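ok so for the tutorial part 2 we go from a plain amino acid sequence to predicted structure tokens. step 1 is just haveing the sequence, like this:
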Amino acid sequence: MLRNTSTAWGGPARLLHAASAALVVFLLGYGAWMTHFAPRSGRLSLYALHGEIGYYLLLLVAVRLVWRAVNPTPRLPATFPERIRFWARAGHVLLYAALVAASVTGWILAGTFSKPLDATLLGIWPVPMLATAGDRALHEAMEGAHVVASYALLALAAGHGAVAVSHARTRDAAFLRRMGW
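step 2 — the prediction. this is what the tokens look like for a chain of 181 residues:
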């Protein structure tokens, strides 16, 4: 099934979800490792790789939002009370907001280093910097905002997974089949 239906996510939505989740897990783990455990002398190249993968995540999020806008969103099972439906919608909005916030603050941060962290998408399209190189005040502000957005994303993603599994186990065993599981 290519397109979403009223009861299940289509193949592209599932693929975009899985790819985004994989990138989020990688970026959060790699980000924690590179800032806390990697030798200081080589961190700039590690930041550049982290940033480049972050651009791909932001691109995937944009594609997901477009796909979601032109496809129906599967309904939650009828067994779910309205308060659960409200929190499910709110949780998805917050997840997308955290994805965008972590990505955009990282993008701005990449331009504030004394030597900006240049990147290209697919080795072809240069990623424009959104900030002035060497702007220390903006660097510190964006670094703090990026950390907060990343921790928020971690909490929301973990909660999203835990709630999905919990609902599948306690409310509706067919719940996860909407994602093809």
